[in-house]
Each structure stands twice: as structure tokens, then as C-alpha cells.
Amino acid sequence: MIGHNIRGFRNRLGISQEKLAELADLDRAYVGCIERAEKSVSAEVLYRIGKALKIKPHLLLVKDAHSLSVKDLEKAILP
After folding, report:
1. Quick one: 24 exposed, middle or buried, by C-beta within 10 A (0-12, 13-18, 19+)?
2. Does residue 1 sit in helix, strand or coil?
3. Closest Cα to residue 52, out of 79, 36, 77, 28?
4. Fold of 2-76
5. How far apart are CA 22 and CA 29, in angstroms?
6. Residue 79 DSSP symbol
7. Cβ-based neighbours of 77, under 8 Å, separated by 6 or more
8. How does pLDDT run across 5-59, given as a tens digit for each residue?
9. DSSP letters of 15-78?
């Protein structure tokens, strides 16, 4: 789910894995492994990826968040 959301948000921004990795200060291969759910991520990495994707990191934990509208995303945000 996390990797699926990362890929979806990344595609919405129109950036490559390489660019996301650069923005989040991560290795491109690691980003690919995260997107394919081959590697788990720490809270620190979720934060860095969220910041790079210009979203609140907890949205990466909401099922199919990348496909939600802005209005639905606002509803998904925890108080």
C-alpha cells in the first residue's frame, strides 16, 4: 500500500523515481524497492518522501490515497 501510494503520488507530480530519490536524499534503487514493496521504510524515510512529494507523510498510509481527489484527501487527513 505504501509503495503503491508513493508511485501514484509521484506519477501525479510527473516526476521520475530518480527525481524523487534526489528530492528525498535516497538512492533511486531504494525508491524502486519501496514502490515494489520489497523494502520496508522507517518513519524518517516516510517523512522525507512525503516532503519530496509535497504531501503529509501519513497520507502514504491511507489506502489508495494517491487516487483520491483533493476534497477526499482532506477528509482522510487525521485531526
Report:
1. buried
2. coil
3. 28
4. 434 Repressor (Amino-terminal Domain) (1.10.260)
5. 11
6. -
7. 56, 58, 59
8. 999 999 988 999 999 999 999 999 999 999 999 999 999 999 999 999 988 888 8
9. --HHHHHHHHT--HHHHHHHHTTSS---HHHHHHHHHHHTS-GGGGGSTTGGGS-HHHHHHHS-
